[in-house]
Amino acid sequence: MATPNNRRVIALEEHYMDPELANYADSEDGSDFVRVRLDDLGALRLKEMDEGGIDVQVLSQTAPSTQRLDADIAVALAQRTNDRLYETILQHPDRFAGFACLPTADPRASVDELERTVTQYGFRGAMVHGLCNGLFLDDKRFWPIFERAQDLDVPIYIHPGRPHPAVAEAYYRDYAKEFAGMLVWAFTVETATQAIRIVLSGMLEAYPKVKIILGHLGESLPFSLWRVDWSFSRNLPVSFREQFCRNFYVTTSGNFSTPALFCTMMEMGVDRILFSVDYPWKNNGAGVKWIEEAPISSEDKEKILTGNARRLLHMD
Fold first, then answer.
1. Domain limits at 273?
2. Annotated active-site positions, please?
3. In the chain, where does DSSP find H-type helix?
4. For residue 1, pLDDT beyond 50
5. How many angstroms separate the most distant Cα atoms in the chain?
6. Which end of the chain is more exposed for a tag (fewer CB within 10 A), N or C?
7. Inter-residue contact 315 to 124 (CB < 8 Å)
8. Phi and psi at residue 188, in whole multiples of 5°?
9. What pTM was computed for the model?
10. pLDDT for 18-44, tens place per residue?
11. How many CB atoms lie under 10 A from the CB of residue 182?
């Protein structure tokens, strides 16, 4: 399969749209090209994985998943969505793994669903998209989710979602024609803020072994880490930098930038970086080609493309 050095390439942020969930929470991208690929978990997806050099996709429900739904809908819907994802994985167990979607409107049900999908289905963790009905994830009602993830030794992947409506109105309304592009920046700002708030909240002191993943090479935080650490560490028992580099991992999803990769490697270390494409928004082959041609050692390429994911997600 497809890398020149016969590496087994694992991609972590690769999306699909569950057909039932689509009735409640439409994808953030309405283009036909994207929607066809979000809907496909068979021949087309496997063909494009083979052509691009992807051996395994860790599948995750696309944004906004269940994060904007009330508990009376979200709990049972998340269970059925995860059941269907498990059935998909069983059809191609050598090509697919899964991140659970969680009904965050009911944190206790989310804890139970994380436990169920990891212990019964072998899911590799969970993905949460943006604000949870307007709440940031540092809110203490969500802490039990992270505590259970720590106990299960699986990561929580924090993926962007649309910004709070008040923020979107104040920051982005004057650029309605460019709104799709502005969303990329809005996603970065809001998800980086989620991560900063989690560190400042004390959650990582309470659960020092919890593992959190950010996409897009860390949502700009590695570039800002010196400044953020300088700003916040004076009020923390453990420095911001130490907590961030201890508990967070980042993926290359949708950010195929060599300077950004170098910065992330220098700030966090290569062991914290995992390969992702952000399919179907980005091209599989472009992502693999970028890493294969990056001026980094073959050992580092091996870690990014496969080794770090195998270790973090227990994929041996």
1. 10-312
2. 278
3. 32-39, 43-52, 71-91, 107-121, 143-152, 165-172, 179-201, 203-206, 216-219, 221-232, 240-247, 258-268, 284-293, 298-302, 308-312
4. no
5. 53
6. C
7. yes
8. -60, -50
9. 0.96
10. 999 999 976 566 689 999 999 999 999
11. 18
